[in-house]
Records
---
Amino acid sequence: MENIFDSSYYWITKRGLQCIGQWPFRSSKEKRILRCLTFFTITSFLTPTITKCMTSLDDTDVIIESIFIIGLIGLCFTNFFNWIMMEDNMIRLLLTIERDWKNLRDQRDIELLQQHSERGRKLSVVFATFVLVGLLLCFCTPAIPKILDFFHPLNETRPRIFLSPTEYFIDQEKYYIYILFHAYISASIYTSSIVFFENFFGICVNHACGKFEILKAHLESLHLDGTILIEETSLADFYFIKNRIKICSDLQTQTLQFVDCLESSCCGALLLTVGINIGLIVVAGTVAMIKNSEPSESLRTGCIGVDLIFHLFYSSWLGHVLVVQNERVLDAVYQSEWYRFSNRSQLMLLPIMMRSLKPCQLTAGKLYIMSMQGFGAAMRTVISFFTLLNSTR
């Protein structure tokens, strides 16, 4: 069997993580070099942004814009360093995915896992496209003055637009192209890093959903041997049902362990990610209001704000899908016509039912449940803070 991570389901995410030195199966030397290069490039942009913030303490608007960019980089570094600290867990997750694919024998099970993996791939592409299109629109804003000068010239040249407030202690007008190019490179790297980490999270969630779907299919067909209904009237029937229930129980245990590993790996990072996201959405709205007299700046900040909302929505929706998929396992137990089984077989189903009653959910630091209800609560918090912040200006 070929390396499953070279398949279309995982190839893009694998290549992206390799580029920033976070693919765990590369050599230690390659990972260190690429991680240092990524860190240096992003930090080289973060430093002048912080400097600009510190040298403009009397300008509230510049401070807010600077904090906005610092927050975006913080979002990247949260996942970047979490991956390094939790690398052993990440390896365990990836090896589990690889093992699951190798151990599948039934064609129906393979097709179910393929369906969920393909869904994960499509969602990853949609998420990456949405975020990167927003980034591209931001990159276009510095060109707006040049375009306006060409089509609607004034008596003087319109002022140049920088991608973000920075302080290099040089003539920024003279070195405008170099500063802009540096901003483009850095923004591309930290934005792409956020996308790759989120896509890995999505891969794991969709893999778990695929395994829950396989479990559901096995439970619904417990009472069938092909198309023949089993009444469990003989000892052979009992052992047949017993073996099937054992397979289901083992599959559920493995899936829940996989989700627990994902939860322990991402719990702290998700807390910071959700907190930073909420704060940045508020700041994005505030900056857009500050720059309402400058359409290009409002557009740039608005695009980033929409990307942040979509990021929070996507993470929450993935958690919600996992909860729903686990709940369907309990429904599948009832679909198995358990009442046809002997008392001994019915008792064997109880542990599966009890584990399905416990919500299988991902949390952000045990404080925020990754679900659509959590997303709704987060957006209400955003609106409250946005109203408060704008009332103090």
Note: The first helix runs from residue 11 to 19.
---
Amino acid sequence: MEKRIFKDKAYSLLAAMIKAMANPHRLEIVDLLGQGERTVEEIAEEANMSIANTSQHLQVLKQANLVEVRREGNYIHYRLTHEEVSKSWQMLRELGFSQLSEMERLIRDFREKRNSLEALPMDELLTRMRSRNLVVLDVRPAKEFNNGHIRGAINIPLEGLAAKINHLPKNKEYVAYCRGPFCVFADEAVALLTKRGFKAKRLMEGFPDWKMKGLPVETIES
């Protein structure tokens, strides 16, 4: 094979994979699957899409070898083919933060309205976790928490936080986290906590970022 043909083929293969991700809905699906496998129905509900559209996007990702299928009875479960897929999404996201000023403004404006502008980076949280006055609060659904979470975190899914907030001690400082910078669960949790007089911040990143850094994690066996 001539070197020009080799180069063209190599770049074409990579371009096809990148093209499969070059869609906002498919990027959100990759982000969701970074939390663990999901059925088509679960993805559709989370991403606010029809099941038909969700299936089409999943097929594109599957053809690019970015997701794979596991069948269980009448349900089809999708998951990322490799941890590198999640890592590539995180790197793309970080590139957007560094190169797109509009991205930074978008996040700042969103968080200003929810009193969650001051976000804590992972390295600072790791240092401050030694304090007994700090509570790390995972506000993702219980299934995601069980699949993996920051070591020592407690799980109160966002939808149940309002009902349990009166049982939380007010002499603690809370750091809420969820799926990542584009996940708003943590922002909404911080808004609720601060409104009720708690001292709270959100983690700048999410659990997949924490795990990818090799920081302490736990799982709960089903």
Note: The chain has two domains: 3-85, 101-218.
---
Amino acid sequence: MNPILITGATSGIGQQLAKDYAESGQTVYVCGRNAEKLQELASLGSHVKPLQFDLTDLNSCKEALQDLDPVPHTWVLNAGDCEYIDDGVMDAALIKRVFTINVIGLANAIEGVQHHFTAGHHLVIVGSIASEMALPRAEAYGASKAAVSYLSRTLGVDLAPKGIKVSTVFPGFVKTPLTDKNDFPMPMMIEVDEAAKAIREGIESGKTNIYFPKRFTWILRILGSLPYSMQHHLAKKLIKDKQ
């Protein structure tokens, strides 16, 4: 079994993925900022290798990821965060925080590991189905994930001639500490172990785009393909229904 590296491994989907791969005996590099949670994962066995660093600091990324032995063949870049804008009142500091983690952190991670890339490697980037349609309060999160989606898909085009596969993950609502903070209905939410299983299966089958849960993400994709005027009408209805 080839080694795998996972960012955002101390919480949510990343943590579940790390546990699942560790239980299978696979060598797993687990990356995050929380030293205590990294050590909890490391206690699963010597094949779990903790790397503590801050993805928003490029130098920290490069130092932590410079020498990896054995070199991972699969790179799951999963770290991210979510904050919401209320009532359309712009908060530039909030936008910057979300983009710094979700977009700049992703770019830092890729720059930190790309010197390891070789033909046959698989880069897996976790986005969100929120990137498919404009949703209330998601000015920061949705826009950041739209950037992640575009970056991932474009990188897939550029790396394909080198024999490097790039997959983009589009989760719907997954029960994690991140969604536990939400104060609105989350239809068709799935458990984190289901999400991790969907990602593992998508990686194993070599899918370019990994969507789950299937029904919810299919609905959002259809709605996202509608003319913007219709999407705008639906979004306004969501706001009205909440009020």
Note: Confidence is low (pLDDT under 50) at residues 239-243.
---
Amino acid sequence: MTDSSIKKRTDSASRLIKASPETIYQAFTDPRAWVSWLPPEGMSGQIDSFDAREGGSYRMVLNYIGSDHVNLGKSSEGTDIVQGTFLALVPNKKIVQCFEFESDDPAYGGSMTMTWTLTALAEGTEVTIVCENVPEGIRQEDHEEGLNSSLHNLAVFTER
């Protein structure tokens, strides 16, 4: 096996949101808020457990909406299940989480780390997400589309 075959990918996205870092941070630490904006377009979410503190864990079930997505699930037909841990919660500045997909497919194996950075600007907050060690089974184009969709949802949720 060569070094390039084991190198993990990093994906990222960023968006200016017209809301304060405090408002955005609250959308990460309230499970009802989180599940309403985090699932990308075409998916719905359900929180099974949620403990928003450093070292706290969560489990989220994401369901694809519509029969044309039935074969897309990483955990089962039409479903992605993630089990994660909050590695760092810096109020109004940063959220770092690590999670794994519950999947029998090794293409979705391993732990992915997601770092959300909130940067206060005069016109709002720049929200940047960096995903490290992205599983090889996730196509980069699909992942970037999903990240941007979640950022759009976060903007809609917090700008109201």
Note: The chain has one domain: 9-158.
